[in-house]
Here is the input.
Amino acid sequence: MSWKPWSSNTASRIKGRTMKMIRAIVRPEAADAVTDGLGDAGFVSLTKIPVFGRGKQKGITVGATHYDELPKTMLLIVVEDKSVEEVLKLVQFKAYTGNFGDGKVFVSPVESAFTVRTGAYGL
Here is the structure.
């Protein structure tokens, strides 16, 4: 095995392959539908994290009880730029209920990625 330590000069190793990280925060009850839909479309690599948070509504009030933070599930997936639109459509289709709290999706650039075990760069 040819182990290559991390360096800031990774751009030359993955030329022409730009990537995006998609962070989708969805209802916990929608997370499995989203991950199954992504898997069926060939996007099997992801990270799923239980989180708590609130949106613009600052929580919800049920009767006399106010819930400031609600349970959500955050899905992290890194894809090549050409796949971003497809992933976003899948997430929206699978997570949509039409009610407040369906979720939020953030897309940001990824400079590089490498596998710890092999040192291979890219996805």
Observations:
- The chain has two helices and six strands.
- The first strand starts at residue 19 and ends at 26.
